[in-house]
Here is the input.
Amino acid sequence: MIDSIAKSYANALIDLLNESKISISDAVNELQLIGIIISDEEISKFLNHPNIPMSEKIKIIEDALTNKNGIFNKTIISFTKVLIENSRIMSLCDIIAVMNEYLDDLNNVVRVEIITNTELKEKTLNEITAYLKKVFKRDVLTKVTLDDKIIGGIIVKKNGYVLDASILNKLKAIKDTVIYGE
Here is the structure.
């Protein structure tokens, strides 16, 4: 679950990018690169070390992100510095997730994860996708995950919501009906 602070940071950055007419998609790509950089074990230790002054952390990250090739936008570098100053750099993945949701809304897209115990045939996946497209009234991007704990059927997840059409879930429902009469 994405916390409200990450949402606030993401929304503030989205507003700033929109005002500055900077591509949100490009910004997300840059933030993902920064996420890869800060996920390095040594860099992560450096950023979280309590005895290293904040000014030194910011200076080193700023120097690393600002180079002659100009890969990172100045707004993204400034945003990264703010995250470091406020000890929120570890919220970067959640911030990126919020920004991707915003882009999906703009593009009328919904992302779902389909969890099943076997590979889905292309025809079956297309049928499920077509059904979900009707339900959500949006284009659907699917990610299929295999989970051998599922006896059969599928589980569909979207932004924390779960549609459980697995056999195990149906057996639990039958058990509850028999035991509790519900």
